[in-house]
Amino acid sequence: MTKIHIPTPLRQYAGKQPTVDVQAGSVGDALSGLVSQHPELRRHLYTDDGKLRAFVNVYLNDEDVRYLQREATAVKDGDNISIVPSIAGGADPMIRLAAPMLACRCCCR
Amino acid sequence: MATITQPKPETAGNVLTNDEILRYSRHLIMPEVGMEGQQKLKAAKVLCIGAGGLGSPLALYLGAAGVGTLGIVDFDVVDYTNLQRQIIHTTADVGRKKLDSAAEKLKAINPFLNIRKFETRLSSENALELFREFDIVADGTDNFPTRYLVNDACVLTGKPNVYGSIFRFEGQASVFATEQGPCYRCLYPEPPPPGLVPSCAEGGVLGILPGLVGVIQATEVIKLIIGQGDPLIGRLLLIDALGMKFRELKLRKHPDCPACGQHRIITKLIDYEQFCGIRGEEKPVEAKVPEMQVEELKRRLDAGDDIFVLDVREPHEYQICNIGGYLIPLGDLPKRVSELDSSREIVAHCKMGGRSAKAVEFLRQAGFKKVHNLTGGIAAWSDRVDPKIPKY
Q1: How far is A55 from chain B (nearest CA, A)?
Q2: Which domain holds residue B83?
Q3: Structural domains of chain B, count
């Protein structure tokens, strides 16, 4: 099994779990497995044409997959995949995702 | 080992007095610091952007350690809600400029410090000139435009950017913009597209978290100055305070990075609000939705009018205080809209009116005709109708 670490801003779409286990041969498969289990995540990770969103970085163990084979990067049992969105800290959750759904502009600090 | 332009310790101004030698004795007796290291600290000039959550522990520890010149950039005043985590400020400082409050505490801890206050909003007009006067910049800001501004200005002026950021109970730390290492844009070339924040109400932050991350930043600043240890260059430290887990990811200098790569296209500072705002903040929609003032709602409820009060906050907020509204958190509204009766008059509220405005817009698009936003939210209700409702 491959463990996927879910960043805090996205946990609400992954059943509030900090990690999700998937069975996969590649990073791409692992992420597909993740969004199959938690469909609400799809729009946050992928654009409408199925590409990984630019401001979401994916790591296999400690390596950015952009420097490996991206979604084709092979994974094995015990590997860890991390999804690392940009955060800008403070009281505002600064991850912004172009998904056509309701969200709130932070009116409350 | 990092190579930064090391401050020259040998000038007369950086010789330690006997008082300083006694003060810093616990540094001096360690070979990793010693007299040479302490003199480097005294010669160093560090710019702290922000005297808030991250800035508080950062400045306090850099001051205690004897960093000779500390610049602080902050234009804000101390708010009561800051005290939960911005530990350089006290209750007596509420209402005071954060700069004045911070400088006073730092001088009290270490009168040898040279504190330079910059009561200004960091901008493309002032950043380059400001950064040139310092050796290292410590960035603890809380918004994307400033993150990119600080990054670009650090790259353009050749100053390392000791980065820290926090969200709820997680943090990140790294050192960007060194010659050999990546910059923030290597990791995130662009800010995220237009503003759909997953859950504003899930904001908030564990009070200790900026303490944890801010001191990590201070540690990195000191390591860069004294040239010891392995700084977080090319390393992203991920901090999970709840699990008390620390993980590390490798960061690479991107060869095509527009700021620090081989073919740089960023040669000056830009309009960062626009950079982030083209794809950035949503404009508030309050102006476009029908509004109701709290006094009118109160009057009509007292008169027995059939008004359905919809509360779109989160359950933990409802527990803090409520006016008896029907709770559907904003994020759940699309899938629970069938619980609402469009033939009834609905007034939606949240804490301050932002989220509920979105709810009203959503409902109107879903065909609800009789729906209003409660201007100012439960905060306005507390202010003008029922002061027993607590503010939070």
Answers
A1: 6
A2: 12-277
A3: 2
Mutate to test the interface with B, among A19, A38, A102, A109 (most CBs of B within 10 A): A102
Whether pTM > 0.90 for this model: the answer is no
| Domains defined for chain A, CATH in brackets | 2-85 (3.10.20.30)
Instruction: Give the residue on A whose Cα is nearest the Cα of B81.
Output: A109
Instruction: Say how far apart CA B149 and CA B127 lie, in whole Å.
Output: 8
The predicted structure's pLDDT at residue B304: 94
Q: How much is the average pLDDT of B112-140?
A: 95
Residue of B nearest to A86 (CA): B188
CB B203 within 8 A of CB B170: no
Question: Are B224 and B336 found together in one domain?
Answer: no
Please list the active-site residues of B: 200, 350
Q: What is the pLDDT of residue B214?
A: 97
Give CA–CA dist B40/B223, Å, rounded.
Answer: 11
DSSP B74-110: ---B--GGGGGT-TT--GGGTTSBHHHHHHHHHHHH-
Contact B192 A109 (CB under 8 A): no
- Which has the closest alpha carbon to B39: B103, B117, B112? B112
Which one of B81, B167, B351 has the shortest CB-CB distance to A8? B167
> What pLDDT tens digit does each residue of chain A (109 aa) get?
999 999 887 888 898 899 999 999 999 999 999 999 999 888 888 888 888 887 788 999 999 999 999 999 999 999 999 998 776 544 333 233 322 223 333 344 3
- In whole angstroms, give the CA distance from residue A55 to residue A58: 10
Domain end point (choices B231, B250, B277): B277
Predicted local confidence at residue B4, as pLDDT: 56
Q: Show Cβ contacts of residue B17 under 8 Å, excluding neighbours closer than 6 positions.
A: none
Residue B4 domain flag: no
pLDDT for B1 beyond 50: no
